[in-house]
Design goal:
six-stranded mixed beta sheet; 31% helix; 394 residues; D-Amino Acid Oxidase, Chain A, domain 2; FAD/NAD(P)-binding domain; elongated; 19 strands; eight-stranded mixed beta sheet; binds glycine; alpha/beta
């Protein structure tokens, strides 16, 4: 049971957080630092799902695809927050985040791929994104181990990376140092809602009272019992298989984040080289497949043949929490006191600083910052009502 609240805590809401990933720990950290009593519940070890599986790319520019223009401003705003956020979190936790700002290089594996790369480059330039077109030779001067067949490249100096696993550990530490309580291996069985108001969570068959509940359970956020349909964030798991190789950290074969057709490659300072990722609509299927891993290795080898000699470190599967429009779902729900932070799709690490600041500000002040106004669950309301009506007529 929680400790008795201090005088300062009595003036702040008590908060139960469902999910101890980057969102849950980060928002919990801000709330605990502001004097709230905060309890984060995770059904396993905190931060070991999508937050751990990610590659940590802060790639607002190169990852923007046609149709994602409304999300771009949010991504760029969060990206701009990253350097200060990293510094603040490192100070709060004494854990280095491995932020790297060499930039991101996107390459065409062969002459045939160059036309497609050029189209993507023109699209990004039409959005005023700062990118530099390179010949194959210029790309190889930046990353000398690129394959001789690489025929062109685009350099995005503003797209950086951070070690997402260090980020998880740092948020966990900062949250607990701020006075938050972490309950690991403690699944939330349901969110208790009475008279359209959140009252707490059910844990181990008992009510855990809270003034506010934050639902931040990633791809599992849709399936928590007790939440009325209009407040259930419509997210699904989007499976990704990944692996890592091991470089000699004293002689790394590359420094930039590298993208090629069907692959991204992310070098860490400790020599870990991350290769990702498949994109599969397979529900919560945890299988690593020969085909999935083969295609990642083949695509990586096409642009960086030196990987052939590197030992395999680890292989894993993660589940992106993906909403219907690939954008996050942040802030209020139709249930008073129930707040959501999920649906970050491919951008969870990138959007961490903005999500953490904006959602915690909303929970403390009751006013959603302008940047997240259009990313609420209410944007799905019409479609949810229509779906419910169609279902009742069947
Ligand atoms: N942002 C990288 C991925 O989702 O695979």
């Amino acid at each position: 049971m929680p400790n008795a609240p201090t005088d300062h805590q009595k003036t702040r809401p008590t908060v139960a957080v469902v999910g101890g990933g980057i969102c849950g720990l980060g928002i919990g950290w801000r709330l605990a630092a502001a004097g709230c009593r905060v309890d984060v519940f995770d059904r396993g070890v905190a931060g070991r799902e999508a937050s751990w599986a990610a590659a940590g790319m802060l790639a607002a520019r190169v990852e923007t695809e046609p149709g994602e223009e409304p999300l771009l401003a949010l991504n760029l705003e969060s990206q701009a927050m990253w350097p200060d956020f990293a510094q603040e979190l490192e100070a709060a936790s004494d854990i280095a985040l491995g932020y790297r700002d060499e930039g991101t290089l996107v390459v065409a594996a062969h002459r045939d791929d160059a036309a497609e790369l050029r189209n993507t480059y023109e699209f990004h330039r039409s959005l005023d994104l700062d990118m530099e077109w390179l010949t194959g030779g210029q790309a190889r001067r930046i990353e000398p181990h690129l394959a001789p067949g690489v025929s062109a490249g685009v350099l995005s100096k503003g797209d950086h990376q951070v070690d997402n696993r260090q980020l998880v550990l740092a948020l966990r530490d900062a949250f607990m140092r701020a006075g938050g309580t972490l309950h690991e291996n403690t699944p939330v069985e349901a969110i208790d809602v009475e008279a359209e108001q959140a009252k707490g969570v059910q844990v181990g068959g008992r009510r855990f009272d809270a003034d506010m509940v934050l639902l931040a359970a990633g791809a599992w956020s849709y399936d928590i019992d007790g939440v009325p349909p209009a407040a259930r964030p419509p997210v699904r798991p989007l499976k990704g298989q990944m692996l890592s190789l091991r470089m000699d950290p004293r002689a790394p074969i590359m420094d930039h984040v590298l993208w090629g057709p069907g692959i991204y490659i992310v070098p860490r300072r400790d020599g870990t080289l991350i290769l990702g990722a498949t994109v599969e609509e397979k529900g919560f299927d945890t299988d690593l497949t020969a085909g999935g891993i083969f295609r990642l290795l083949e695509a990586a080898w096409e642009i960086l043949p030196q990987i052939e000699e590197l030992p395999i470190n680890e292989m894993w599967v993660g589940f992106r929490p993906t909403s219907r429009d690939d954008a996050p779902i942040l802030g209020a729900t139709p249930v008073e006191g129930l707040v959501v932070a999920t649906g970050h799709h491919r951008n969870g690490v990138l959007l961490a600083p903005l999500t953490i600041d904006a959602v915690s500000a909303f929970m403390l002040d009751g006013v959603a910052p302008k940047s997240i106004e259009t990313f609420g669950i209410d944007r799905f309301a019409v479609r949810q009502t229509q779906t419910a009506n169609a279902g009742s007529q069947e």
